[in-house]
Amino acid sequence: MHITAQTSPELDAYCSIPALLARNAQRFGMQTAYREKEFGIWQSWTWGETQAEVRAMALGFLALGMERGDYVAIIGRNRPALSWAMVAAQSVGAIPVPLYQDAVAEEMAYVLDHCGARFVVCGDQEQVDKVLEVQETVTCIEEITYLDKRGMRKYDHSHMNWLGDVMREGRAAQTRLGGELDKRMAELTLDHTCVMLYTSGTTGKPKGVVLSNRNIIVTSKNSSEFDNLRPGDEILAYLPMAWVGDFIFAIGQAYWTGFCVNCPESAQTMLTDLREIGPTYYFAPPRIFETMLTTVMIRMEDASPLKRRVFHHFMEHAREVGPKLLDGKPVGPGDKLKYALGNFLVYGPLKDTLGLRRIRVAYTAGEAIGPEIFDFYRALGINLKQLYGQTEASVFITQQPDGEVRSDTVGVPSPGVEVRIAESGEVFYRSAGTFESYYKNAESTASTKDAEGWVATGDAGFFEESTGHLRIIDRAKDVGKMADGSMFAPKYVENKLKFFPNILEAVVFGNGRDRCVAFINIDLGAVGSWAERNNIAYSSYQELAGLKPVLDQIQAHVEQVNDSVAKDKILSGCQIHRFLVLHKELDADDGEMTRTRKVRRRIVEEKFSDLIAALYGSTDSVYTETEVTYEDGRKGKLKATLEIRDARVHGARAQQVAAQ
């Protein structure tokens, strides 16, 4: 059943992204819509200028022969012109399909072929080369356009155009094609497809999620009103354009509210650009917040003893007082005064360094964030909240209202969203944001969305009776039972481990077993910095990961987590008995992670089955050979002998170990 959602005169009038652009050009014409940093200089475009750029591009697409219903692949980093390409494609009745720019040619080939893209818009030469590489097998591509001209002079341009030339031709064709463009834009309704986004593919091939104008616009309206987003807000668009979060924040909400979208110069300058912009509205997956915290802790290790004492003294106070102040709870005058002094000496300068001083609303989602990491940012006075969402929901399923923010829940259902918990514990939802279908995959559509519009999330959770907030335990398929019947929830333990700056990634195993074991990835930046401070030489990640002092540190972290997990009656069985530090980082190029940095647990389990067997055995080391993919695409073998460590466990688990 199709869920007909909210309609209103405003929604009927602005029923597509191009219609919202026209409204913004009229209402906020001189207000900055986009900024982009290039060659160290920020350039800006108003809403009026953005409309002119998008129209020129749309007319150019018409001149190239783009038809209604065509699929247009967009590949590249966040840049205004690539966002405009998506809106220009929508304007002519085509459907934009953003791809992950760091995907290898083989991954791109699947998406390009699956959606049947006739047109591809590339950011630069690297992306053009990948598209040309797959054209022998992907025969649907007819025209390639590119944004950055560098390196493109000697290419065959018979079916390839610089985007600047396309726009120049579009402007020249205004008289000839302007009427046709206006006609196509006028045809767009809330039920037309807005965008097609591919899932990360944690369990198989990515699926094309078809999202309508209704899905995107109603969701953008509701979520913007929930947090009182306004035209004066600023965001930094740095996450992959192929990810639904970037689309909803940098296009959906941006076009609904009229706020400014800022694009960094590169991934390497992102944190610097973040400080220069000082956004008021910010989103980052847990990995970004973990990386920021790691950077802070590394700097503290390098600071003088006095600075370290001051930092830890005031942070201890902030953890008690900061969240209360954010939530509007009563705080004594003495605590307020001390917090104000801490803000002057520590919190304020730290927020300036991170670029988070002006934040009004910040969100994290994608994976569960470690409670300690979440609490650290709220202690600083940053209004960091959690949301729970999916590509299939146009992001928003639940959000945390101001004043009701906690680290262990993901909030209440977002406006216009219904949520229910099945008997199995799986979370289901339906809303105006619920996707139309999986492209060319009726079977998966039917198994995910039922006839009444309810969508199975694949996550296990429950509503707290006292607060009405949703708690997510883990992926439903990952939650299991230990051999003694106690609950196994690996993500709960993994997030606790990743709080430590030295630990980048963790994968815990134990379903159906008598005990849990774990793989650990060290954070090369944090551990490498520690090694340099202590004059410890190393030549590679593999060598550093195998050093005894490093293993001693990781063991201390594992045992500290075990101490914490042992205090949870339900999950105390998830304490880690044995662990090893992997000889390589889990990598998307090796298929071990998705492009959104989610662990492909089943693939890791199969690929490193020899290591898991050793962890459940009695040996204290294991030899392994692993195939890896180098940056240039070549394959190679990585050989290593890994040390296996036993970790101290507590409570009933300790008695079990003693009995063995």
Mean pLDDT: 91
Share of helix among residues? 40-55%
Q: Under the CATH scheme, which architecture of the largest domain would be assigned?
A: 3-Layer(aba) Sandwich
**Largest sheet at a glance?**
5 strands, parallel
Contiguous low-pLDDT stretches (5 residues minimum) are 1-5
Total domain count: 3
Compute the number of strand runs: 28
β-strand amount: 15-25%
The CATH class of the largest domain, by name, is Alpha Beta
Task: State the end-to-end distance.
Answer: 56 Å
Keywords summarizing the entry:
660 residues, five-stranded parallel sheet, alpha/beta, Rossmann fold, 22% strand, GMP Synthetase, Chain A, domain 3
What can you tell me about this protein's structure?
The chain has 660 residues and is of the alpha/beta class. The chain has 3 domains: 9-265, Rossmann fold, CATH 3.40.50; 286-357 and 359-474, 3-Layer(aba) Sandwich (Rossmann fold), CATH 3.40.50; 480-659, GMP Synthetase, Chain A, domain 3 (2-Layer Sandwich), CATH 3.30.300. The chain contains 23 helices and 28 strands. The strands form 7 sheets. A 5-stranded parallel sheet has the order 4-3-5-6-7, with helices on both faces. A 5-stranded mixed sheet has the order 12-13-14-15-16. The protein is globular, with a radius of gyration of 26 Å. Residues 1-5 have low confidence and may be disordered.
